[in-house]
Amino acid sequence: MKRALTDLALFGGPEAFLRPLMVGMPTVGDRARFLARLEWALDNDWLTNGGPLTTELEGRIADLAGVRYCVATCNATAALQLVLRASGVTGRVIMPSLTFAATPHAAAWVGLEPVFCDVDPVTGCLDPARVAELITPDTGAVLGVHLWGRTAPVIELEKLAAEHGVKLFFDAAHAFGCTAGDRPVGGFGDAEVFSLHATKTVMAFEGGAVTTDDGELAERLVALRNFGVDRTGSVTSVGMNAKMSEASAAMGLTSLDAFEGTRARNRENHALYASELRDVPGTEVLAFDEHERNNHQYLILRTDRAVTGLHRDRLRRLLEAEKVFPRLYFSPPCHLMPAYRTDPPLRLEHTERLSEQVLALPTGPSVSSEDIRRVCSIIRLAAERGEQIEAMWAQAVPA
Ligand SMILES: *Cc1c(COP(=O)(O)O)cnc(C)c1O
């Protein structure tokens, strides 16, 4: 397969890029500062269990999200589980399928049933009308996702949840530092969950954070993440170990220091991708809502095979041959993964179409404008010669 691609020699061969370009390269920030924080933790023999670095990180995230409480965890998946547990949710949880597997996994791991709902055909976020149709007496919660940093329809979902007396949470793994209108993500629904995984825009190697204005919920979360030990030292709930370490907090603080710089670079990158690809038929760089602040963490290219003649997966292979590694955020959608697939399979029209068309492209502070121009020139060539490439591919790679 490699050889066949090289033989196509459309784009100057695999040596065209000096280094691989990946999605989600880590935004470390000032390495010396990170190491100084780490030294400080070591000097003070305080490595985990709600240390000063974790507390500082929680304070800064709560400020940014405009909420009273932030509870940091070892990752977002555990945070989602804790939130669902601590809120006493039972039964079914309505959520999008166009998300990372962690969203349904978190619900399933605490004994809840994920119910997949179709999304808005443009934003990829939950469609409130579809959510309303799925609410039954068994529904315990709605779990929205701010896909690609674009906020879910928070106001409509809050209204629906209140009307039906169900809890509302958001998986905000993509939406650190984003807003809906001028309200920051972090304060919507009963609680929101951020991920600080190494690939996210603010990262702590591994890490998660719950934000909420509900003081009782925050207190239950603090106990649940630490074996169920409450404020008095008594084990009053069946907890788990989901604490953030001070090494992670040191990384999180340092990455957070760099966040506005990261956002600015991502924003420039987005503008450059959009202008380079503006006149390439059948491709579209997903725009951001001008009324929101985005972190521009994800650069989403939508391709229309009916126009380019080129399959999305073929474009991905061509880019990979040039050492550009796009990611499929998200394909397949969760409801078609073997873990969740039903027989006959559920059909979610807009979810499936988006899932077949999108490709996340490399961005972040380490991606230069030169890099972007070259990525775009590959996409341009591929899109312009889509049918020709498909025909050559069919010959070179027998089905
Ligand atoms: C990254 C991600 C998660 C999982 O976060 P972890 O911190 O790795 O557990 C959950 N949901 C979405 C949408 C994500 O992108």
Report on this model:
This protein is an alpha/beta fold. It is built from 15 helices and 14 strands. The protein folds into two domains: 113 residues, Aspartate Aminotransferase, domain 1 (Alpha-Beta Complex), CATH 3.90.1150.10; 227 residues, Aspartate Aminotransferase, domain 2 (3-Layer(aba) Sandwich). It has a seven-stranded mixed sheet with strand order 2-10-9-6-5-3-4, sandwiched between helices. The protein has a three-stranded antiparallel sheet with strand order 11-12-14. α2 packs antiparallel against α9, α3 crosses α9 and α4 packs across α5. The site of pyridoxal-5'-phosphate has 14 residues, from α4 and α5.
Characteristic key phrases:
Aspartate Aminotransferase, domain 2; disordered N terminus; globular; 399 residues; binds pyridoxal-5'-phosphate; Aspartate Aminotransferase, domain 1
Give me the CATH superfamily of the largest domain: Type I PLP-dependent aspartate aminotransferase-like (Major domain)
CATH architecture of the largest domain: 3-Layer(aba) Sandwich
Q: Share of helix among residues?
A: 40-55%
Kindly report the oligomeric state of this protein.
single chain
Tally of strands: 14
Using the coordinates shown, work out and report the CATH topology of the largest domain.
Aspartate Aminotransferase, domain 2
End-to-end separation: 12 Å
